[in-house]
Amino acid sequence: NDSIDLEMRISEGRQATINKININGNDRLYENVVRRELRTRPGDLFSKEDLMRSMREIQQMGHFDPENIKPDIQPDPINGTVDIGYDLVSKANDQVEFSAGWGQTGIIGKLSFKFTNFSLTNLLHPGENYRGILPQGDGQTLTVSGQTNADFYQSYSISFFDPWFGGKRPNSFSVSAFYSLQTDISDRYYNSSYYNNYYNSMYTGYGYGYDNYSYGYNNSYENYFDPDKYMKVYGFSVGWGKRLNWPDDYFTFSTEIAYQRYVLKEWGRYFPISDGNCNYISLSLILARSSIDNPIFPRYGSEFTLSAQITPPYSLFDGKD
């Protein structure tokens, strides 16, 4: 005959217990920072789902090449255990932004630094674990930036984010502060021959804002800077977030309270008043879920965000409208 009968018998053995967890190729973070993201732990029963979830959490950190994260599984059938190794390839994740130029008002530029492997502990208590020139190793994020448009606009900001505040639970903490100064130009500019000739030329077709004998540069915009007309803004915010277990552990909930104070002096834009102070307080509530495998080039998963912002009437507190 030209046919056969084939019978396959499979005997399922005992589920292996995880013995050792090895992390290879990590030269950026402290090892405990990587281990706290793992769902596979010594003493637990081996689970492929936990293995894949651990690889996803490592990718979400952003400090390792997601295409080169390879698990190394070494079973021991005799003892009923398994050793798991995570082979990682570190990658740079810090950012530097710099731009500079020259305009009618003077120097225009921006400088920003974003350190994604900052360590506040090493900054406050440097010791044997101190790494490099900048304290690093804890996976925290520190951002410092400054921007200027000569005398007419300046802004500075600093922010700090810790994904595991306290180091024991995945509760995030963030704090930020900023300051900006925007000045206006003097009323003399609008009454000058430069301003009048320039805008009259738009309708008459003659001249381009020049005076009778020169090109009017001595009457140009930057010469009418008025430091006594300004708007200053001070801002501060504090945020806290938590991973949820229900409906599933892809959900996160976070909240942030922000405060801004506006200081105005002879400022006739955006506000119903030109002199005085304005206060703004807001509370933000965010419920989010993300199951994507890679934050930059996702191949599967989904994400959504539901947010609400509440602004209490500050005038009820100070009795001023």
Description:
InterPro entries: BamA/TamA_POTRA, D15-like, POTRA. It is found in: Membrane. Keywords: Cell outer membrane, Membrane, Signal, Transmembrane. It holds the Pfam family POTRA. The chain has six helices and twelve strands. It is mainly β and 321 residues long. The protein folds into two domains: 17-87, membrane protein fhac (Ubiquitin-like (UB roll)); 95-186 and 221-318, membrane protein fhac: a member of the omp85/tpsb transporter family (Porin). The chain has a nine-stranded antiparallel sheet with strand order 4-5-6-7-8-9-10-11-12. Strands 1-3-2 form a three-stranded mixed sheet. The protein is elongated. It starts with 16 loop residues before the first strand and ends with a helix. The model is unreliable at 204-217 (pLDDT under 50).
Percent helix = 10-25%
Average pLDDT metric: 85
CATH homologous superfamily title of the largest domain: membrane protein fhac: a member of the omp85/tpsb transporter family
**Biggest sheet layout:** 9 strands, antiparallel
Note the total helix count.
6
Basic shape: elongated
